Structure formats: structure tokens, C-alpha cells
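Same chain as my last thread, 233 residues:
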Amino acid sequence: MSRVSSIPLTLVLAVALGACGSTTHESTTPVTVFNLAADPARNIPVVTGKATVLSAATLRTTLDSLLSSHAELITGLAHEVGVGNNSPTAAINALAANTQALTDAIALVYGRDAGRAFAQLWEQHTQFFINYAQADRSHDHTAKEAAEEQLADYQSDFASLLSTATAGGVGLVAVTRLLHTHVIDITSYIDADAAGHTALAAQLRAQAITHAHIIARAIADAIAAQHLDTVKS
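reply #2:
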């Protein structure tokens, strides 16, 4: 069987290129999470012939583990930036590895073009969180508002990508709400951490991880319900 892709290439490119047009205020942010010029699908092989089959159970476990880890890693990196570490190499590398694993999982299901579109949006939203943390640290309200606007745009773009990819299995309104919760969780954590509210920050971090499990379940269930060649029950 050939690989089944539910994402029209024109939509993939439109969403990805639209996201690439957003600025990430790197001029005021010394910590850069990713290299936009790099190809996130460079190591993903082109599948020919019989499609790779992934069990629905494995897909659920994989997304659950990776998305919950994402919440842990992005909050950890934001903390490093918040306390003034401008070279948190280990934290950046861990986050990059997590992002690549997520990209690989999406590409396994939907193909390399979808993997690229996913990665470009996902990597940028991690940068926006770090921009937000940097702005919090430096009390730069303009930069903080810019990061908030970028995260709002991300929610809309990424919700559209997920809803289209799953053929409406993750409804646009529902997934937008889930992503909004994720953004509020992380930015609220950053605010609390920057203000020195350690107990509240820990609570918000745990909440972000819990909500990541919910997001993972919703996405995995919607993908499994598509009965693609690449995912079998």
C-alpha cells in the first residue's frame, strides 16, 4: 500500500510559509531554540512501497510521552532563560531532540511534507515561549506582548493544521481550546517563575504536563480514527 496523506500539499505549504513569515525577535533574544534554515525532515527517509504500519496503541503511547516531555522541557528551558542563563545548551538540545522525535512520529503517519509543516510551526512556538521568558526577565513589555501575539497566531495556525490532518477528527474549536490552554499554562508558569513564586510555578508546571497528556490523547485518538494505512488498531 502507498502512504495515505490527509494533508493537501498546498495547505501544508501555505500554513508553513505563513508561519515562517512571523518574526521571532531574535535581535532582542540571545537564546535561540532552533535554526529556521535547517530542514526538520532531513533525516526522515522517503517511504516507498508498503507503508510503515504503526499500531494505534504505540501512537498513543508515543505522543503521550513526547508531548508531556515537551511541557517539562519547555518549562525547564524557560526557567534557565529566566534566571539569566544565555547558553542553556543541554536544555536546548533536549528540547530539540523532543521536537525531532515528534516530527518523526508525524512524518511516519503523514509523510515528510507534513513533518516539515509540523516542525516549522512547532519549533517556532517553542521560540515564542523563550522570547516570552526573555521579555519577562528583562521587563520588556513590548517584547512580551509581541510574543503573546505570536503565540496567539500559532494557536490558530497549528489548530488548522491538526484539524485538516485528522480530517476534522480533532475539531477546530476543540483543538484551538486545547492549544490555548497549553499556551496559558506555559506563560503563566513563566510569569510565576519570574516573580519568584516557586510553589505556584511548580503547580502550573504540573498542570501543563497534565494538559499535555489530554492534548496527546485527543490527537492520537483522532489519527487512529482515520484508519490510515500507516496506523492500525
